[in-house]
Amino acid sequence: MASGSWTLEIESSVEASRLFKAAVLDWHSLAPKIAPEIVVSGAVIEGEGSVGAVRQLNFSPALPFGYVKERLDFVDRDKFECKQTLVEGGHIGSKLETATTHFKFQPAAGGGCVLKVVTTYKLLPGAEDDQGETMKSKETVTGIIKAAEAYLLANPDAYL
């Protein structure tokens, strides 16, 4: 079985604390409001949003799969950092055995932040590492962050 990883860095003019809350911790609630053409609904289905909690995001036909379930493995609300594992849906079971993503929002000069994303994965036997899929994943994460950023800039009192 092959394994791999990819990294991504995204700059934002929004404060780390607000973007962390909106784009990661509360994305299941915010996404259907600001990206309904992609995310139809979302909810925490196990736990209460702390370590071990599982949330489900349900997608429109715009994506090649109907849903994902993500488990929160680590969260540090003071350092704007978390790690989550894809536990069901997406490409789990068809191309991937496991996939984990680590998000770290670092405050930047001028009040914005830099998000560092590291995703690691293990492919199922016979599945090939597809650079096109990696590019789509990076574009999706960037789109999520930029959508949340636009929402926060338009709503300066949200997620304080």
From TrEMBL:
| Domain of life of the native organism | Eukaryota
Question: What are the Bet v I/Major latex protein domain coordinates in residue numbering?
Answer: 1-155
Q: Which PROSITE patterns is this protein grouped with?
A: PATHOGENESIS_BETVI
One GO MF annotation is: signaling receptor activity
Q: Per the UniProt entry, what is one GO biological process?
A: defense response
- What keywords were assigned to this record? Pathogenesis-related protein, Plant defense
Which Gene Ontology cellular component terms are annotated?
Answer: cytoplasm; nucleus
Presence of keyword Membrane: no
InterPro entries annotated for this entry? Answer: Bet_v_I/MLP, Bet_v_I_allergen, Plant_def-hormone_signal, START-like_dom_sf
The entry assigns this protein to a family as follows:
Belongs to the BetVI family.
Record-given protein name: (wild Malaysian banana) hypothetical protein
